[in-house]
Amino acid sequence: MPKRLFDLIAAALGLALLWPLLLLAALWVKLDSPGPVLFRQVRVGRYGVPFTIHKFRTMRTEPGAAITVGADPRITRSGQVLRQTKLDELPQLWDVLRGAMSLVGPRPELPRYVALYPADLRERVLAVRPGITDPASLAFSHEAELLAVADDPEREYREVILPAKLRLSADYAARASLATDLRLIFSTLARVVRG
C-alpha cells in the first residue's frame, strides 16, 4: 500500500473515531485558560515548503522562548496532561489528511532551525513529508528535561540535540517503508500508554 494512501485512510479513521476525545480536549483547553484552542505555527515541510502545523494549545498566550525547557511555567494545567499523553498532537491528523504531513516522518522544524541544516542532510530530510512521529521523536521524548539541565538550552538544542535528531531523521528518510512506519507507530503508541 502506498504511504500516502495509508496516511489518508489512517488519518480519516483516526479523526472519525477520536472526534469525541478531540472535542473534550478542545473544551478543556478553552475553559482552562484564555486564548485559542489550537496552536498554529509555521514549520518547514516537504521540499522546504512552509506550512502551518496545528496542535492543541498547551501554553498560555504570552511571549517566550521557542523551545520548551523542563517545567516551563507557561504550560497550563490542561497542557501538562495533553503533553504527557501526546494528545496535543492529535490535530495534526488534519495536517496529514490535507497532505502537509504524514503519520511518520521527520518532525517539522521552525525555519530558523532548518537554516542550520547541512546541505546534504537538508536535502535528504526534506525529501519526505514531515510526520507526527519518527525515530528522533522517540529517542528525544525527554528533550525538555535535557534542555532543563543545560547551561544554555538554546545552544544545547542547536549544537547537540538538533544534529543528533537530524542524523536520525536522515537515516529514516533513506530507509522509509510501510513496515518501518507501522513499527514506529506501534512504538509511539506503546510509549504513550506507558506514559
TrEMBL record:
It comes from the Bacteria. GO terms for molecular function: transferase activity. The keyword Protein biosynthesis does not apply. It is an enzyme of class 2 (transferase). Keywords: Transferase. The keyword Signal does not apply. Its EC number is 2.7.8.-. It holds the Pfam family Bac_transf. Residues 3-193 form the Bacterial sugar transferase domain. InterPro entries: Bact_transf. PANTHER family: COLANIC BIOSYNTHESIS UDP-GLUCOSE LIPID CARRIER TRANSFERASE, QUINOVOSAMINEPHOSPHOTRANSFERAE-RELATED. Belongs to the bacterial sugar transferase family. This is Sugar transferase.
